[in-house]
Amino acid sequence: MSSIHNFIFKGLPSRVVFGAGSLQNLKREVDALGARRALILATPHQKELAQDVSAQLGERSVGVYAHAIMHVPIESVTQAIGETERQRADCLVAVGGGSTIGLAKAIALQSGLPILAIPTTYAGSEMTPVYGITEAGRKRTGQDPRVLPRTVIYDVELTLSLAPLITVTSAMNAIAHAAEGLYAQNSNPVISSMAEQGIAAIARAIPTLHRSPSDLIARSDALYGAWLCGTVLGNVGMALHHKLCHVLGGTFNLPHSEVHSVVLPHALAFNASAAPTALQQIARALEVSDAPAGLFDLATHHGAPAGLKDIGMSEAELDLAADLVVSQPYWNPRPVGIEQRIQIRMLLQHAFEGIRP
Ligand code: NAD
User: Fold this and answer.
1) What is the predicted pLDDT for the residue at 145?
2) N or C: which end of the chain has fewer CB within 10 A?
3) Ligand 1 near 67 CB (within 6 A)
4) Rounded CA separation 223/125 (Å)
5) Would you say the CB of residue 130 lies under 6 angstroms from ligand 1?
6) Is the CB of 261 under 6 A from ligand 1?
7) Which atom of ligand 1 is nearest to the CA of 43?
8) How much of the chain, in percent, has pLDDT values that exceed 90?
9) Separation of CA 57 and ligand 1 centre (Å)
10) Among candidates 170, 140, 162, 168, which has minimal Cα distance to 214?
11) How confident is the model at residue 2, as a pLDDT?
12) Quick one: pLDDT band at residue 54, thresholds 50, 70, 90?
C-alpha cells in the first residue's frame, strides 16, 4: 500500500447467485427466503419471460403482474400493491431491468415484502437500497434498506435477448456508476477495485457483443461487470454525472441508459482536473490513454448515439438544464454551483452536439 487509508466499509446484505442457467436455482432461492406465495413482476414486453419464471416456480407462484412502467408512476405502484394484497403474496420476484426492479422496490417500501431480483439489463438497481417513484411529474428518490433485493439471480442467458442499442447504452450506464465511484468522497479500496474490474470487464465485452450479440462469454463479462458496477452504486455516493442524467432524464423525459451513455465522457472531462487519480484508473481499465475520449469511442464506435440531439433533446432546453444542474449544491470533486454555470452550459452544448471530448 502506497498511501494512508482512512475509510468506512459497509457491505450490503444481499445474496448473489451468478451464472449462465442460474435461473434453475429459483425455487431453491425462493424457499431460502421462506416464501410460499411469490408474485412475478415484469414489463408488458417481458410478460412471456415472467410466465416462464412463474411456471418454473409452480405452486410457489401466485401469478404474473406484467405492468411495470419506466420511472415507476405512483398509480402503477398503488395498483400493484392491490394485486399483492389480493394474491396474499409474501415475496416479489422482479424479472427485468431497472423499471421492473424499481416497481418491486416501491411495493417493498410500503409492504416490507422481500424482493428476489432477476436483472436482465446492466443498470444495477438490484444492488442498491435506492428507490424512485414519480408523482405529479416529479421523480422522488430515497434510500431504505427494505428495498434492497435480498437475493439476486444473474442468469447470463436472459441477457442474450437484449437489443444491440440497449446492450451498449446499458453497459455504459453501468460504467458510469463505477467511474463516479472511483472519485466518490466516501470511497474505499475494496469498492475502487470492484469499480476498476467492473469497467474492464464491460469494456472487454462491448466490442464483442457489437459483432456477435449472443457471445456467451462476452455476455457473462458484461453482466459480471454490471454486478460489480451496481455494487459500487449501492455503496458510495455519486456526483455530477448522475445529477446531470437525473435532470435530463427526469425533466426532459429522455431514455435512461442513452442519456448516461451520451453524458458520461463529458461529465468526466469536466471533472478530470479535480480527480486525476480516478481518471487514470478509468483509463487503465479501458486500456486507453485518455478516459473521456476512450469512453466516447467505446460508446459511439459500437452503436450508441453520440449526442443529446440524437435522443430527443432540443437545443432550446439546454439553458433550463444548466440552471437546474447548478441550482442545488451537492458534492462533486470539482465544485458545481452558480459560479460554474457557464462551464456546465458548455458541457451540455458539447454533449448535445456529440463532440468527442
Ligand atoms: P428498463 O428496465 O426500462 O428496460 C427497457 C426495456 O427493455 C423494457 O421494455 C424491458 O422490458 C426491456 N428489456 C429488459 N431486459 C431485456 C432483455 N434481456 N431482453 C429484451 N428486452 C429487455 O431499462 P433499464 O435501463 O434497465 O432501467 C432504467 C430504469 O431503472 C430508470 O428508471 C432508472 O432510473 C432506474 N434505475 C434505478 C437504479 C436504482 O438504484 N434505483 C439504478 C439504475 C437504474
Assistant:
1) 95
2) N
3) no
4) 13
5) yes
6) no
7) 11
8) 91
9) 23
10) 162
11) 61
12) very high
Cα 170 to chain centroid, rounded = 7
- How many Cβ atoms from other residues are within 10 Å of residue 294's Cβ? 20
Residues with Cβ within 8 Å of residue 34, at least 6 apart in sequence: none
Spacing, Cα 232 to ligand 1 middle (Å): 18
Beta bridge partners of 117: 94, 152
Domains (range + CATH), the chain: 15-159 (3.40.50.1970), 164-353 (1.20.1090.10)
Query: What CA–CA distance (Å, rounded) separates 140 from 168?
Result: 27
Ligand 1 close to Cβ of residue 281 (< 6 A): no
Average pLDDT in the 85-103 region?
A: 98
For helices 341-353 and 318-327, give the axis angle rounded to 10 degrees. Answer: 140
Does the C-beta of 98 come closer than 6 Å to ligand 1?
Answer: yes
CA of 98 to the centre of ligand 1 (A): 4
Nearest CA to ligand 1 atom 38: 125
Q: Name residue, grid cell 475494496.
A: 190
Please give the distance, rounded to the nearest whole angstrom, from the Cα atom of residue 314 to the centre of ligand 1.
24
pTM, to two decimals: 0.97
CA distance 292 to 283: 8
SS (H, E, C) the chain: CCCCCCCCCCCCCCEEEEECCHHHHHHHHHHHCCCCCEEEECCHHHHHHHHHHHHHHHHHEEEEECCCCCCCEHHHHHHHHHHHHHCCCCEEEEEECHHHHHHHHHHHHHHCCCEEEEECCCCCHHHCCEEEEEECCEEEEEECHHHCCCEEEEEHHHHCCCCHHHHHHHHHHHHHHHHHHHCCCCCCHHHHHHHHHHHHHHHHHHHHHHHCCCCHHHHHHHHHHHHHHHHHHHHCCCCHHHHHHHHHHHHHCCCHHHHHHHHHHHHHHHHHHHCHHHHHHHHHHHCCCCHHHHHHHHHHCCCCCCCHHHHCCCHHHHHHHHHHHHHCCCCCCCCCCHHHHHHHHHHHHHHHHCCCC
Write out pLDDT tens, residues 246-284: 999 888 889 999 999 999 999 999 999 999 999 999 999
| CA-closest residue to ligand 1 atom 36 | 98
